[in-house]
């Protein structure tokens, strides 16, 4: 079963908690987006985990160095998952996995900016990461000709657990599910909707169908 992850790319804790309250019944994982964490600090992680102890909280740190240290900061603040950039030195990812293993938490490698996402996914999976995020960031999505289909095709050939992030919405999530991705990440399709709860429910219903 493909899990549903809401990516909260809002800028303050109050708005993030309010959105989470609306969509929590329909999602498995609550992601605190990188801009949100940069704006509010790790306190937003604690606030979210305290408010939703039964949900998995995902801290989108996109760490580039000091993997063990930064992953420990996220986990000790209440995160269940933290992201490390796939483009960085293997040692950074291995350090984060060490921090995760010591706490029974998980590292997710974010392939944003990585040229060969499938190859890197295979490499880093050997380090013990929970899954690899095949990700086209918001800037890449804005480029002419972008389609989430490229990530869907990569997921089919990855052969390791992956999530897909980068414009997942009601029109594409069925194909995301059929690609074998373990997690479908939806940000703008939920927080940008007029009715975020209805949008999250629609995505959930498609995944459950
Ligand atoms: O990780 C993300 C991005 O880098 C900004 O933090 C997004 O949360 C991710 O791309 C999912 O959002 P959508 O593409 O809007 O679904």
Automatic annotation (TrEMBL):
Pathway(s) the chain acts in: One-carbon metabolism; formaldehyde assimilation via RuMP pathway; D-fructose 6-phosphate from D-ribulose 5-phosphate and formaldehyde: step 1/2
Pfam family, one: OMPdecase
SUPFAM superfamilies named among the record's database cross-references: Ribulose-phoshate binding barrel
Residue ranges of domain Orotidine 5'-phosphate decarboxylase in the record: 3-203
SMART domains in the cross-refs: OMPdecase
Protein's name according to its UniProt entry: 3-hexulose-6-phosphate synthase
Catalytic reaction list: D-ribulose 5-phosphate + formaldehyde = D-arabino-hex-3-ulose 6-phosphate
Transmembrane segments: none
PANTHER family named among the record's database cross-references: 3-KETO-L-GULONATE-6-PHOSPHATE DECARBOXYLASE SGBH-RELATED
Enzyme Commission number(s) from the entry: 4.1.2.43
Principal EC category: lyase
An annotated Gene Ontology molecular function: 3-dehydro-L-gulonate-6-phosphate decarboxylase activity
Domain of life (superkingdom): Bacteria
Keywords: Carbohydrate metabolism, Lyase
GO biological process: 'de novo' pyrimidine nucleobase biosynthetic process; L-ascorbic acid catabolic process
The family this protein is said to belong to: Belongs to the HPS/KGPDC family. HPS subfamily.
């Amino acid at each position: 079963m493909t899990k549903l992850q809401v990516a909260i790319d809002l800028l303050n804790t109050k708005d993030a908690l309010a959105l989470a309250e609306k969509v929590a019944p329909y999602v498995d994982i609550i992601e605190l987006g990188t801009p949100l964490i940069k704006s509010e600090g790790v306190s937003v992680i604690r606030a979210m985990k305290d408010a939703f102890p039964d949900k998995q909280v995902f801290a989108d740190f996109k760490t580039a160095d000091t993997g063990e240290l930064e992953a420990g900061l996220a986990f000790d603040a209440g995160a269940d998952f933290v992201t490390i950039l796939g483009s960085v030195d293997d040692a950074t990812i291995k350090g984060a996995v060490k921090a995760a293993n010591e706490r029974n938490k998980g590292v997710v490698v974010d392939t944003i900016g990585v040229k060969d996402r499938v190859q890197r996914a295979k490499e880093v999976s050997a380090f013990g990461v929970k899954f690899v995020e095949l990700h086209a960031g918001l800037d890449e999505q804005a480029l002419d000709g972008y389609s989430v289909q490229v990530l869907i095709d990569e997921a089919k050939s990855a052969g390791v657990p992956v999530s897909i992030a980068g414009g997942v919405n009601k029109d594409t999530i069925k194909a995301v599910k059929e690609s074998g991705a373990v997690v479908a990440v939806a940000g703008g399709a939920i927080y940008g909707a007029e009715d975020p709860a209805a949008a999250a429910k629609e995505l959930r219903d498609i995944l459950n169908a």
